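step=encode ok
step=design start
structure_in=
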């Protein structure tokens, strides 16, 4: 059988497998909302850095060694994509949070393999916010209510589940990407169940934020 025919059959197989994945149930959605924003903020304050005032300071931290800055820079890898259009955040996390993010990506792809699916990557859309970033989002003075978001402590990141990217790199990559977009709800369910499992193992704390994001 020709290679193109085999590739087409594989795409049909992946499509059929994605179609039978049950969406997150109401109970599962509730488990992803069990922690209130106040709990998330308290956890961030306990393990995070002091809030950073501006992008200049954050930029310096990007170039400093982690033992000095207290944070590690994030880069796109085999498990997730750092959103290049991240407008109100900087891709920096304290090391335990960066490790947790890697483990989420690994768990997600492990669960995909168990379902017979190819590796997909989620998109990280929001990480460390400076005080000025947070003020712009709130539409307030930069000095107002400093430290009111868990994102200011370098412990929190948002995972976008409206679109997923295949990790495969070959001539059919675009077709797999289109499947990831068409079946985003199925992949969201796989990712959501991975997050539930890790939360119950007390590795992470999850909240579901607006605009198709898990905040972790």
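sequence_out=
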């Amino acid at each position: 059988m020709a290679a193109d025919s085999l590739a087409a059959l594989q795409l049909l197989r992946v499509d059929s497998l994605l179609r039978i994945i049950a969406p997150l149930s109401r109970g599962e959605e509730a488990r992803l909302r069990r922690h209130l924003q106040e709990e998330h903020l308290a956890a961030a304050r306990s393990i995070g850095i002091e809030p950073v005032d501006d992008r200049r300071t954050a930029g310096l931290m990007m170039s400093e060694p982690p033992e000095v800055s207290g944070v590690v820079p994030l880069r796109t890898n085999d498990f997730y994509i750092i959103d290049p259009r991240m407008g109100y955040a900087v891709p920096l996390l304290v090391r335990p949070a960066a490790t947790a993010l890697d483990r989420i990506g690994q768990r997600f792809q492990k669960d995909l393999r168990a379902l017979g699916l190819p590796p997909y990557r989620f998109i990280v859309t929001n990480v460390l916010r400076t005080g000025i970033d947070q003020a712009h989002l709130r539409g307030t003075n930069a000095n107002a209510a400093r430290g009111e978001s868990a994102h200011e402590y370098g412990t929190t990141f948002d995972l976008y589940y409206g679109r997923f990217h295949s990790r495969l790199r070959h001539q059919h990559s675009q077709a797999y990407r289109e499947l990831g977009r068409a079946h985003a709800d199925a992949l969201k369910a796989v990712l959501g169940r991975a997050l539930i499992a890790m939360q119950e193992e007390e590795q992470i704390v999850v909240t579901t934020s607006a605009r198709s994001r898990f905040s972790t």
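step=design ok
step=annotate ok -> The beta strands are 72-73, 80-82, 92-93, 120-126, 158-166, 207-209, 213-215.
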